[in-house]
Design a protein that fits this description.
mainly alpha
């Protein structure tokens, strides 16, 4: 039951964030948006290091000087996976009128939701792979650590849910519909987590590789999507402060609770 609750925690964060569409103005203040994007980036980078890459390396200590190898391979594959998804799935980023991915006739609203859904896949995988490590009793991965990661991602999903749902109102959608789209963008996380847990139940030796794979995918999202969007225009120091705050909070949570 704890594991089931754990893999749904990030989705709850997205759903609560999307609910901001009922309480806030149609357009989010740009400075607040920068701070939230920076915060989400900081959480994801810290989670990638402390919850994913370090445990992956620790699990491979029996390889001696090559202990870094599974983490390095998984990290590169995670980057390549998101790079491929970015080129295949039609999606549209905030403040952009030029779709990315394969040509399609999808609505602008749908492509905006797909952009966030694409980000949520590696987050769901990250939660799933850490819970899988806790289930198998791998050294360096605990249930408390898995719950901490799920909580950290839920915290960063809150602003992400608000950021995706609020622009949908300006596209002509009702607040209820905008909330539904924003909430559903996060449903891919428990699905990805569940699939990852099932796969690792079949092939346990893949754990270090999948930990690093999830880390690589999340770092790709941060560098290719979140930070550029947070650094446009004026007052980019706001996103920097947000990044530092998110990184610090996730680091503290992981070390203190994990």
């Amino acid at each position: 039951m704890q594991i089931l609750i754990g893999i749904f925690i990030p989705f709850v964060g997205t759903a609560l964030g999307a609910a901001c569409v009922f309480f806030m103005k149609d357009v989010m203040n740009q400075n607040i948006q920068k701070a939230l994007l920076g915060f989400a980036s900081g959480v994801m980078v810290a989670a990638s290091v402390w919850s994913l890459l370090i445990p992956a390396i620790e699990m491979s200590e029996d390889k001696g000087q090559l202990a870094f190898l599974p983490a390095a391979i998984g990290f590169v594959l995670g980057i390549l996976f998101l790079l491929g998804m970015d080129h295949l799935i039609p999606h549209l980023h905030m403040d952009s009128d030029v779709p990315e991915g394969m040509p399609s006739k999808l609505k602008k609203t749908t492509m905006m939701v797909l952009a966030v859904t694409l980000h949520n896949i590696p987050e769901g995988m990250a939660v799933g792979v850490v819970f899988a490590g806790a289930i198998t009793g791998e050294e360096g991965v605990t249930l408390a650590g898995a719950l901490t990661l799920a909580l950290g991602i839920a915290i960063q999903n809150f602003p992400e849910g608000a950021i995706v749902s609020m622009p949908l109102v300006t596209e002509g959608n009702s607040r209820g519909k905008a909330y539904l789209y924003g909430m559903l963008s996060g449903i891919v996380e428990p699905i990805a987590a569940g699939i990852t847990i099932v796969l690792l139940g079949l092939v346990t030796p893949m754990l270090p590789y999948l930990l690093a794979f999830a880390a690589g995918a999340m770092i790709y999202v941060v560098v290719e999507e979140l930070l550029p969007e947070a650094s446009t225009g004026e007052h980019t120091n706001i996103s920097t402060i947000g990044f530092a705050t998110g990184f610090l909070i996730m680091m503290i949570l992981d070390v203190a609770l994990g």
